[in-house]
Amino acid sequence: MAQRRGSGRLVETVASGVAELIPDPDRRAAYSLMLDGAPQSYVDLDDPTHLEFEYIRRMAAAIDLIAPAGQPLRVLHLGAGGLTLPRYIAATRPESPQRVVEIDGPLVAMVRRELPLPSKATIRVRVGDAREAVEGMRDAGYDVVVLDVFAGARTPAHLASVEFAREAARVLAPGGWLIANVADGPPLRYARAQVATIRAALPEACLVADAAVLRGRRFGNLVVLAGRTAPPVAELTRRAAGDWFPGRVETDLDRFAGGVAPVTDSVAVASPSPPEGLFSHRK
């Protein structure tokens, strides 16, 4: 049952935990979506191109650069949250057919009710498991696959294997791109394994992240852009350097992965939990 609390905060129990929608006091129609205290999404209904989270801006920059401005793209989003990136693509690339897969049906219903999608957006949302959905899709049906799935604050193990990476690659067009959000901290074992795993299916790749995260000094988000042709490194580097919180692009992924083998289903694990208290300042 949804409950309204002070300052317009909405609290509702969904399938994956306790969801909260918190209004941004500085923007008229903007909200943060929290799940069990961890920030999941930020949505500005007045301006869907306003992206508050730095890793989302890095994902958006990759989407901006992989095709001419305004050109529609066929996009598959694995993980929904507040549907921030689908809204951004609908605003910047109108008429892009987008499909979203999210396992938490009550969360989808809450977001649709409280943060309605633009009426002209061609966004379809399916409730279900991301891997099961991808395995049932046709070959080469998408230009972009965005992987941003979290159960609580961790990416499930069955989405972290080379078998899954190959399924994601299969549904991409020959010139398509996988954009994955990888959360990790020192000593970056999970991130190194994920880079090796993704590159086993899509060998041309780069990483975009905060320099301190790339050096293994703190927990954070690393965005992987992977495909079958060279990524737009120079443009991504400029965009990352000019961000509110400057980031760095890493291209020497052989060195980054350090000889780690791709992860198979038999040994795949969920991403590490964030350090205790990491999100406490955002509550």
Automatic annotation (TrEMBL):
Family matches, as InterPro entries: Methyltransf_11, SAM-dependent_MTases_sf
Gene3D superfamilies in alphabetical order: Vaccinia Virus protein VP39
Domain Methyltransferase type stretches: 76-179
Superkingdom of the organism of origin: Bacteria
Keywords from the named record: Polyamine biosynthesis
Protein name, as recorded: Spermidine synthase
